[in-house]
Structures are given as C-alpha cells and as structure tokens.
Amino acid sequence: MFKFPELILSAALLAVSYGALAEPLANVGRAATPAELAAWEIDVRPDFKGLPVGSGSVLRGQQIWDKTCATCHGSFGESNRVFSPLVGGTTAADIKTGHVAALISNSQPGRTTLMTVATVSTMWDYIHRAMPWTAPKSLSVDDVYAVTAYILSLGEIVPDNFVLSNKNIADVQKRMPNRNGMTFGAGLWNVNGHADTHNVACMSHCQADVKITSSYPDSALGMAGDLSAQNRPFGEVRGWNTKTETGGNSSAGGATPDQIAAATIDPGLGLVNKYGCAACHGVENKIVGPGFKQVAEKYKGNTGAEALLVAKVKTGGSGTWGSIPMPPQSQVSDADVKTIVDWVLKSAN
Amino acid sequence: MTNKSELFGRILKAPENFVDPELCAVITASGLNEERRGFLRKTFLAASAAVATSSAFSQTPRSGVGAGDPNILNPSIAATTLGKPVASNPYGQPSKYETNLLRRQLPGLTQVPQASVAFAPLQGLFGIITPSGLHFERHHQGWYDIDPATHRFMIDGMVKTPKVFTMDDLMRMPSVSRMHFIECGANTAMEWGNVAVPTVQYSHGMMSCCEFTGVPLSLLLDNCGFDRKNGKYILAEGGDGSAMTRTIAMDRALDDVIIAYGMNGEMLRPENGYPLRLVVPGVQGVSWVKWLRRIKVGDQPWATKDEAIHYVDLMPDGQHRQYTSIQECKSVITSPSGGQRILDKGFNNVTGLAWSGRGKIKRVDVSIDGGRNWRTARLEAPIQSKCLTRFNIDWNWDGKAAILQSRAIDETGYVQPKIGQLRAVRGTKSIYHNNAIQSWSILESGEVSNVQVS
Alpha-carbon distance B335 to B395, whole Å? Predict the structure, then answer.
C-alpha cells in the first residue's frame, strides 16, 4: 500500500474556522450505550481493525452465491449485465508481484474488482454493509467470510478448499493481485496540494491551428432523447429537435424515461422501478430473468397465474426461464407484489 | 434540423388541415356529440402545442408587423380576468410551462435506477443556486425518505465520549449557512477518451450549488472530546442500504465541514439526504454522505469500496491514485451549449459557471476561436470560496462558425487545463476528476455541438 502523509493539526485551526463559543454546549446529545456502538460499528479497516471473529469456506460461499449473488453478478462473478464484473483479468504472476499487469497492457476490456482492489478488507467490509443488493446487511458474519472466500477463489487467490477466517485473512492480503497498485492521492487529497497540470493564461495568438479532434456523432443524436424538449421553448436559444424513430430514451436495462413518466399513471410500473425489478427484467426483453411481456405471454389465459406468480416473487423461483434463480423478494409487501403481478399479466394485452 | 423561419424569429402559420377530413365529414353529416367534441378538443390542443413550440414563442419580427403584435393589440386573459387565490399551491410549484428542464438520466449509462445518476439541467439555470428540485441525484442503493423523529447521529471512535444526537439536539446547536458547490468526482467522466455526450446537462450536470445550513462538524467533534493528537481521519457513514462510507482528512473536518439539515432555506430534499447530510466543501460529492448516521474518528484511512475500487484514478503506468478528493478549478459555458441552437445573429449573452475546490474564482476568460485568443469575462457577485461563480460575456455573433471555450483561474493561480494537458499526465483510461476546458462548436446554422480540440 502506501505511507500516509502526516497532517499538521492544532487548536489554532479550530479557532480560525468557527471561533470560540460564547457558551459551552451543555446538555446536547448523550453518551452512546455499548449495545448501540456494537450495532453500528461495522467498519473494517485495511489493518483489519473492526473485523469480527468468524470463518467461512469457499464451498459455503458458492452455495450462498448461487442463491443470492449470481442473479446480478453471474455464476462466476464475471457478469457485466447489472454491475461491473468482479472477477477476471488477474494472473498468478500478478499475485506474486502485487501489480495487475493488465492495467498497463490494456489486454482487458474493462477493470474488474479484483484487478483494482488492493485491500481484501474493502471486500469484506462492503459485502457485510451493503450486500445483497435488495437486502443489505442480511448476511451473517460467517456468510460474509464465505462469500469473500468464494470471490477470492474465482480469482485463484485462494484454493477451492480454502476456509477464510479472521486468523488467516492477513495472509490472504499478501496475495491480493493489485496490493501494490495504489499511490496516495497526489495533490488532490490536501486542499493545499499541488496540481499536476500547468496551463498558462495566454490571451492572444496562443496557438496557430485549432483542430477538432473529436465531435459528437450525428448517429448518436437521439441517444439522450429529444433535445428540443430539454430546453425552454423561448429565450436566447432552442434545443435541437433530435426526435428519431429509433434513437432516444431506450436503455438496455430498465424502463425508459417515458415509461417511468407513465408510472405516475400506472402504479404497477412505478413499483417495478421502486423495487429495482428492472435490474433483471426488461419490459420486452430478457436481461437476467425474462421480460415482463414474455412472462405475460406464457401465462396468458391461465387463471391461476396471479397466485402462482405472487408466490414466486415472494419466495423465489428457478428453472422456468433458465438456471439462474430469482431470489425471494420478501421485502416487498403482499399488496405491492399483487399490484406488480397484475401489471405484468396485463402487459400481455 | 434547422428551421430557418424560427431561426430568424418569424411567426409561422398554424398548420392547416389539422382537423381530420373524415371527422369533418362526420360532424357535417351528424353534428357534434360529446365524443366528437372530445376529438376536436384534442386536435385543437395538439395543433396549438405544435404552434407553441414553433412560433407562438418566437420573437416579434423586426419588420412587417402590420398593425402590430396581436399579443399587444388583443387583451390577454391574464389582464382581463380574475386570477387564482393565495395558497392554491401551499408548497409552490414551477410554472406549468417549465416542463423541459428536468433532472434526467442518460439512457444506457447504468442498468439499475437505484445505482444511477440524474443530471441537473445546467443549460437553462440562472445565477449560482440550483433549485432544490433540480439538484442532481446520485444514489448507490436507492433513496429513502427517513422520518426525522427516528433519525440518530452518532460520533464514535477515538473520542472521550461516544455520543448520540437526535435532530432535536442538532437543530438547537449553533448553526452556519454557507453556499457551496457539490460536484461528483465522475462529472465529465464520459469525456476522458473522446466526446461522448451531447449536452452540458450530461457533460457537467453532476454538479449543483446550494446554501446549506447546519452545525460545524468541529463543534460536534469537540463536544465528544476527539483525540487531537492521533485522530487524523474521520469516517462518515450513511443510513441507506449501501451505508455509504468515506474517509475525510481531519484538517478538512475541522475546517469547513458542516453536518447539514437545511438546503436553500428549507429542509434537505429526501433525494439529497433528508434529514441529515455531510457537506464537505471543495471535495467530491461522494464524500458528502447522505442520510448521515455516524462519524468515526480514527488514525488510518478506511479504504472503503468507494475509495479502493471506485473513485480511484487509473494512471498510464497502471497505478491508481487513491484518495483523490479535491475538485480542482473548472468552468463551463452553459448557454449557448451543446444541443442548443442560437436563434439569430447579433447580440447574444454568453454565460457559464466557474468553481474551484481550493477557494475562490479569480478570473474567467472566454475564447470564441477555439483558444487562439481570449477575452476576460464579467464575474457576477457574490464570489465565494468553494462555490459556483456565474460569469457573463457580451458577444455579437457574426453568423460565422465559432468554437466557444471558457477557462477559469482560481485564487491559488491555478489555470484550468486543456483536455490534452490532462491526458498528457493522466492518460485516457481515467474516469474521475476531468476538469478540462470545454469546447462548444457553433455552425453557421446556429447549431451548437460538443467537440474537443487540440
């Protein structure tokens, strides 16, 4: 990693900023209880301060992964359909050097988490505090060890039979592929830091030629929708009319802006966006799970469809549309599930 | 794309034959019933909308007005009838005509709307304050409208007494109100390699500026007896699903950081962290933790996900710069800007915004020839530290092609760089902290588009 620059602190700094109070801050706030501190002190540092005692195997991690994580991240952490890929682009040589060579060679199309992250604590901390996506903080401490171990095994940082624990995580840190890949903030950490570019404020005849090196392609004009509708219809300027048949307002994944606007009329679509269903289901097309219209087609005329789909949303399902399971959406109220299912079924018409 | 008539401000005739001939025949034969009235109403509305966008708002022609402008000659409804009562909208709304300038997502940029961004419509905003409802949005795991009665704020770590504060506690403490810009570290990120987005909303709209009200963090840290010797960093943590966490240097925390509940005179909007957020002037937006629930004092940085995997700058040598936080001096012309069309030759006000995470803006220069020659713009008061500064410059457009640029200089003397200068140091694979000079090409048609120049 790196050495942190020393900071100069003084009481004078405080005085400069806000001055002394005329009266002390009496009877404001109260002491936190040990139970409150235990509930909220979840942060884990690179030196593993804050890391709770526990352990989890790669095998256990894989079981949790297939059930809970693969939906978004792919079976091997390789998927870029919802989020950036987690795994890929690291080699046995990187594990030796602590520098990911692909970051220089450009041999990878993008950066994966394992190519970037220098500190294994970061993975543990984040999975613990924010995953899984729709039910953050629901994994047990041992489950977090297990899932972390599984991701590390996919990057061949630990073997398939590994059990990650608070006792051996420091040894795993020594094998992180990009552990030597960070430098400290350059001039952009300190407000008085030094900039790395040095333009000068020339005023006239600054350069002989001006060459346009890149311009916005005409073919992409509809990409951001109709620009005439994104500027006032009065005033100094107008927006370009870029309304096109094919372009504009179509996104690969979730609902389009027009559809989102329509959600004020249709509560079902509003809930689909609210609960993030569109992450995995397109309206028309399959993403991870089937498109809503595909579902509606399949169950057209089936009188038991509503009850069946309500149950599938609540408790999860698998096998109907492919091998990746849909995790249970227990956080969605019964009433909302029913509204969503009715909207999905209606969309066949 | 260019409508010549509109370009020169001439009123267009209403579209003819806007009532469907078949409907005409039916009405002639059978008269009007309620359904047909409905059709007619809709047809008229559609036709008048078409007229509104093309000509009703056009400027009065400079010649050939005949007896005069009907908007002057004919009495208006507003001037001749009774208006609406007070408090018709108890929490006011914009005019019904203001439907175009909205926060917008960029289609295809993200796959899930809970981990996404909605950009502020800088192309049509005035002055330096972003209306609360148009402040850009960036969430990592969705937003919540949290009940202030249940919200708690904790300070722990290297302090004598870890403490819990309610909103009642915080709102009776000494408060300050400060105007500051907030810019996402990834603002203008799409433009590192080449031009990628059409308008200033998408190139620079992950930026807003508001007046924030709250308690100086230094008072709260003092109140808990923080470790002055060894407490060199703080960790800020959010109460949302992602429990967003960022490390901030103690010298920043003690300088001008605010635990804020107010924004533009009202409480924070839920999308901006209601009821409590961190305000870290000059530092990238991700550190302004929303739904703030905890500050921890420590002696080492935390290397959280958004400072170890994201918000790190990949350099050409394959190393990442970690903990790059300050938003360096930057400016952009907001009008005329990409995707817009100048209506006419002659006088046009060129206006834009400048800001620096290191202090006040000292000067802004504007070029109309792609950077060959520059003129100094007028800075509008107030000019405040780590706050947007509005600039204007007078321009009589001769109708010829031009390339507009603005170049800001802050009080440290730092001059906003050209994109080539940034790439020379940081390469093209970087994502964050692109503060390059923006170029807008203007064609003879008046069309403005996003370009990069060397």
Answer: 12
Fold of domain B116-321:
Sulfite Oxidase; Chain A, domain 2 (3.90.420)
To the nearest whole number, what is the mean pLDDT of chain B?
Answer: 90
Domains of chain A, CATH where assigned: 42-173 (1.10.760.10), 257-314+330-346 (1.10.760.10)
Q: Which of A250, A225, A232, A230 is nearest to B201 (CA)?
A: A230
Mean pLDDT of all residues in B3-19: 41
Q: Looking at residues A51-59, what average pLDDT do you find?
A: 98
List the single best residue of B51, B53, B98, B100 to mutate versus A (max A Cβ within 10 A). B100
Contacts of A17 in chain B (CB under 8 A): 216, 218, 254-256
d(CA A282, CA B112): 11
Q: Using alpha carbons only, how large is chain B's radius of gyration in Å?
A: 26
Return residue ranges of chain B for CATH 2.60.40.650: 330-451
Task: Tell me which residue has tokens 């905890």.
Answer: B294
pLDDT tier for residue B25 given thresholds of 50, 70 and 90: low
Q: At what angle are helices A267-274 and A334-346 packed, to 10 degrees?
A: 120
Question: How far apart, in whole angstroms, are the C-alpha atoms of residue A248 and residue B270?
Answer: 29
Count how many residues are written for chain A.
349
How far apart are the CA of A244 and the nearest CA of chain B, in angstroms? 11
Check: CB of residue A116 under 8 Å from CB of residue B320: yes
Tokens 């049509």 belong to B124
Predicted confidence at residue B4, as pLDDT, reads 40
Distance between CA B360 and CA A73 in Å, rounded?
44
Cα B54 from Cα B289, distance rounded (Å):
44
Residue A56 phi/psi, 5-degree rounding, is -160, 140
Chain B interface mutation, best of A8, A79, A189, A287, highest count of B Cβ atoms under 10 Å: A189
Distance, in Å, from the CA atom of A346 to the CA atom of A337, rounded to the nearest integer, reads: 14
Nearest to B255 among A17, A214, A215 (CB): A17
Record the pTM: 0.82
Asked if B20 contacts B14 with a C-beta cutoff of 8 angstroms, the reply is: no
* Sole residue written with tokens 């700058």: B313
A-chain residues near B320 (CB < 8 A): 116, 118, 178, 181-183
For chain B, give the number of residues.
Answer: 454
Distance of alpha carbon A96 from alpha carbon A127, whole angstroms: 26
* Partner residue opposite B321 with nearest CB, options A125, A185, A236: A185
A-B contacts (CB, under 8 Å): 378
Say which of A31, A216, A276 has its CB closest to residue B198.
A216
State the Cα–Cα distance between residues A249 and A158, nearest whole angstrom. Answer: 44
| DSSP state string for A166-199 | TTTHHHHHTT-TTTT-EEE-GGGSSTTPPPS---
Confidence band for A256, pLDDT divided at 50, 70 and 90: very low
Structure tokens, B264: 């533009």
Q: Which of A25, A184, A216 sits opposite B449 (nearest CB)?
A: A216
pLDDT of residue B59: 53
Binary contact (B296, A11; C-beta < 8 A): no
User: B242, A212: Cβ pair inside 8 Å?
Assistant: no
Q: List the single range of A48-52, A244-248, B390-394 with lowest mean pLDDT.
A: A244-248
Is the pLDDT confidence value at B353 over 70?
yes
Architecture of domain B330-451: Sandwich (2.60)
Q: E-assigned strands of B292-357?
A: 292-298, 313-314, 320-322, 330-335, 340-342, 346-355
CB contact under 8 A, B308 and A191: no
B3-7, B159-163, B168-172, B203-207: least confidently modelled range: B3-7
Q: Do A185 and B441 count as a contact with CB atoms less than 8 A apart?
A: no
Instruction: Find where tokens 């947007």 sit.
Output: B388
Domain with CATH 3.90.420.10 in chain B: 116-321
